[in-house]
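Lab notebook page, bench 4
Experiment: in silico fold of construct C2
Operator: M.H.
Input chain length: 106 residues
Purpose: comparison with the prior construct
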Amino acid sequence: MTFFEDVPFDDTDFAALQWLGARGLNVGYRAEKETPLTQRGGAERLGRILRYHGRVWRPPALADPDAPLAAADLHAWLGRRIGIDSTGALRVGEFARIVYRHLTGT
């Protein structure tokens, strides 16, 4: 598992952040789960995580890499809906929940 100094054990996103942290979610010891993601940041994180799982993933061409990453974008990248909706830019914690559920089937 990964040690994130800014995620307490009782945090609702603890399992997702820990599990994905060991797979390249973030660099360093801070999850920064409330940080909004850009499309570029989300694509980089997802690429690292999927490479860990031996999956080849080529991110789509991003018209504006600095635009906020929306839940709809991430769901489209993963190829299915996971049942988490969000308005506006996804934050790291929301991103972690969606990808975690996709990869673990939970």
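Observations: The helical segments are 14-21, 39-52, 71-78, 92-104. The chain has four helices and no strands.
Next step: discuss at group meeting.
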